Amino acid sequence: MRTIAVLNAKGGCGKTTLATNLAAALAWEGYDVALGDLDPQQSSADWGAQRPEEYPAITHINSADGPIRASKGTDFLILDSPAGIHGPELSQLTRRAQTVLVPVLPSFIDMRAAHRFLSHLFSLKPVATGDAKVGLVANRVKPHTIIYRELRGFLDDYKAPIVGHLRDSMNYVRAFESGLSVSDLPAYQAQQDWDEWSRVLGWIHSRKSRGKA
Question: What domains are defined for the chain?
Answer without folding.
Answer: 2-203 (3.40.50.300)
